[in-house]
## 1
Amino acid sequence: MPKKRRKLDVVCSNKKCRRYNKKGLKNIVRNGKKQNGTQNYKCTECNKQFVRTKGTPLYYSKLPKKEVKNICNHFVEKNSFRGVARATKHSLNAIYRVADKVGKHCEKVDEEFLVDLNLDMVEADEIFSFIKKRRKTASAKV
Ligand SMILES: [Zn+2]
């Protein structure tokens, strides 16, 4: 299968911009990456910069995207937060934080989030049910 080129489905988030929230106008260009690997974008109309992951767990996470994905994958495989922490070499609190954010986003099925982590709905569903189950037993300090 040929490598699929991801469509730039980002829109300008500046409400004062003439191209605010309009798709397919090619006014959005890639503009380097943030420290944690999040893609940065710029609107050529108003010059405002923004990230697509705004409002998703990745935006708030200090962890690099691939680490968040890694942790998510382990949510599916392991059966405890402690197990995930051990496997990914992150602190238990870091795992709680990711689980909390991911859990919130899975609840409303955040498509952007799924795209960002290259997860499909089934994986997301598994992760969500895992987090929901664990949340009841773990007294997470977030
Ligand atoms: Zn703009």
## 2
Amino acid sequence: MVEYDFTDAVVFVTGAARGQGRSHALAYAEHGADVVATDICETTAESKYELGDETELDETVELARDRGAEAIGVQMDVSSEEDVEYAVETALDEFGKIDVLANNAGVAPVGSLLEMDEENWDHALDVNLKGMWLCAKHVGQHMVDRGEGGRIVNTSSTAGMVASPGLGHYTAAKHGVLGLTKTLAVELAPHDVTVNAVCPTAVDTPMTGGIVESIDEDIAEIAEQSGPDNLLDDIVQPEDISAAFLWLSSDDARFVTGIGLPVAAGATAL
Ligand SMILES: NC(=O)c1ccc[n+]([C@@H]2O[C@H](COP(=O)([O-])OP(=O)(O)OC[C@H]3O[C@@H](n4cnc5c(N)ncnc54)[C@H](O)[C@@H]3O)[C@@H](O)[C@H]2O)c1
């Protein structure tokens, strides 16, 4: 992996108990950053598979410390403005500033668009889209007030670029994340805050296992027939997505803003 210098930087990571969020937290820690690892740590009524828990969040914090970082864990639900404000305040009390927001938390509770109910739709949009906005709003405001720039990296998906059967609400939210990213990039450019999105294809995380376990056979068949298919024949790992986060947060990417970067093994090429 490329060497970056995030010494003295404070990175606020959402969905950090496991999967890509944990990988991002540890990647920034390995490159010198201090880390605020946040997660809901609770499986909600609308979740169709288990989410991260408190023990996993504590493990992320310990693993970040093992890599030399100062790290804290904060439980919060990204879809609650009260929670987000509390987590940002806790981070600022502890570290005094936030340089990078790794806006990663998400859920994928499968269901076809005709059969899902309103709660299911609202939950997917609340976490995957409203949650990204709330975190960007409160961390972004801090970056503007501080006046020393910053980096926001949002997690979209290939489902932010093309259809994803069985995940219509998620697909709508992830397309929305790209719109949010572009607009935030325009609004925050005068403050030297760059805002970008990463669009992963299927990644080897508990979410992918959760989708496979909970998806209805009929939808799985439609998904199988309709793609998109990876062109490169290997499973993308969380670290592959962390590499894109590090680059977009680094000085090397100082003139990159407002983009959605597919880390998709070619899945969006056809
Ligand atoms: N896994 C994939 O194939 C894939 C592909 C493209 C994009 N993504 C996106 O990548 C991101 C990370 O997903 P992952 O694969 O690591 O999934 P994951 O389920 O392994 O991890 C997601 C983490 O987010 C947390 N979380 C869920 N709801 C939350 C909430 N309301 N508030 C705070 N934390 C919450 C969970 O507890 C969990 O620890 C998500 O935005 C997801 O949509 C995943």
